[in-house]
């Protein structure tokens, strides 16, 4: 009988204490994550400026995004363009640097730290640095171009050049992060595989192309998927770049650097403060991110099935 009571008591505590320890996270998640998402979805069906009464408009906000809002489509195009010209270079450079560091005998930690520092640098500092570098009159980049007898370019005033500057900033920031991921993957590959390839007469380039890159494919898929998701949430880099610029406008020159999240921020919290319409924009961004996440998960699961 005592054993039965003791077992019942243990079961009681086994259920009670996990709930106690999990409850703070569940409560905070509901209050600060789930509830804002659900409330934002509800607001997307209303016309509301944040003050006064809400007016129910149904799907009118979503119809306006698809048919009338040119800034949403422009911001989507800008975001995709900057992603295409930045993340591929960051991924390739990260892979090349990791391959170089994996064969380095001395000074590996120093070069790892130097390459990883941009990723942990605050966005404000990065925006200031690149603004000073690409300033038309005093920027170091134009000074170097003048030494090559090339006239200084209006990097921050030309729409396409401004996008290139943002892309360079993103590539510079994330190369070290991708290097760390690839380096972790390379160091986890068994040395016996490389030894067997060398015995068969394979060179360094053949080993990298036939062994290292295929074995790093799961990491590459992970990096590509997270890069696409992170790219669609791009906000800090262009916003900080043109907030500290003397020619700052919403979205940069000709709104060429207006991203999806910057457009959402401007619509929801800018001068117009249309929280209802801004919520609809946020929901559309959320749907795009979810779709890309599902595609990425499908690719990763397919790879696992092959293995």
TrEMBL record:
Tell me, which GO biological process terms does this entry list?
A: transmembrane transport
Q: Does the keyword Cell membrane apply?
A: yes
Provide the protein's localization.
Cell membrane
Keyword list (alphabetical) reads:
Cell membrane, Membrane, Transmembrane, Transmembrane helix, Transport
Q: Which residues form the ABC transmembrane type-1 domain?
A: 76-296
Q: Where are the transmembrane segments?
A: 15-39, 80-104, 116-134, 161-184, 215-235, 275-295
InterPro entries assigned to the protein according to its UniProt record, in alphabetical order: ABC_transporter_permease, MetI-like, MetI-like_sf
Q: Name one Pfam family in it.
A: BPD_transp_1
Keyword Protein biosynthesis assigned to the entry: answer is no
| Chief place where the protein resides | membrane
Please give, as recorded in its UniProt entry, the membrane topology of this protein. Multi-pass membrane protein
Among the entry's GO cellular component annotations, what is one?
plasma membrane
Family as reported in the entry's similarity comment:
Belongs to the binding-protein-dependent transport system permease family.
Name assigned to this protein: Sugar ABC transporter permease
- Origin species, per record, is Diplocloster agilis
């Amino acid at each position: 009988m005592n054993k039965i009571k003791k077992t019942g008591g243990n079961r009681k505590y086994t259920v009670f204490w996990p709930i106690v320890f999990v409850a703070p996270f569940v409560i905070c998640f509901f209050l600060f994550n789930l509830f804002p998402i659900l409330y934002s979805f509800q607001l997307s069906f209303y016309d509301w400026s944040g003050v006064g009464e809400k007016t129910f408009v149904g799907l009118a906000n979503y119809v306006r995004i698809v048919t009338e809002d040119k800034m949403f489509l422009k911001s989507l195009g800008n975001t995709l363009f900057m992603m295409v010209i930045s993340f591929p270079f960051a991924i390739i450079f990260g892979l090349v640097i990791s391959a170089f560091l994996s064969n380095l005998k001395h000074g590996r930690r120093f070069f790892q730290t130097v390459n990883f520092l941009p990723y942990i640098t605050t966005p404000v500092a990065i925006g200031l640095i690149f603004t000073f570098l690409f300033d038309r009159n005093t920027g170091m980049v134009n000074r170097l171009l003048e030494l090559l007898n090339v006239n200084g370019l209006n990097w921050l005033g030309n729409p396409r050049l401004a996008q290139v500057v943002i892309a360079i900033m993103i590539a510079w920031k994330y190369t070290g992060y991708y290097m760390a991921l690839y380096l972790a993957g390379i160091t986890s590959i068994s040395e016996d595989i490389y030894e067997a390839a060398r015995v068969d007469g394979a060179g360094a380039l053949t080993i990298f192309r036939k062994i290292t890159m295929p074995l790093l494919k799961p990491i590459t898929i992970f990096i590509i998927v997270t890069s696409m998701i992170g790219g669609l949430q791009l906000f800090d880099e262009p916003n900080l770049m043109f907030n500290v610029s003397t020619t700052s406008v919403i979205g940069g020159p000709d709104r060429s650097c207006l991203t999806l999240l910057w457009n959402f921020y401007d619509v929801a919290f800018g001068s117009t403060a249309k929280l209802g319409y801004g919520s609809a924009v946020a929901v559309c961004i959320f749907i795009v991110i979810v779709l890309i996440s599902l595609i990425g998960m499908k690719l990763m699961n397919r790879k696992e099935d092959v293995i």
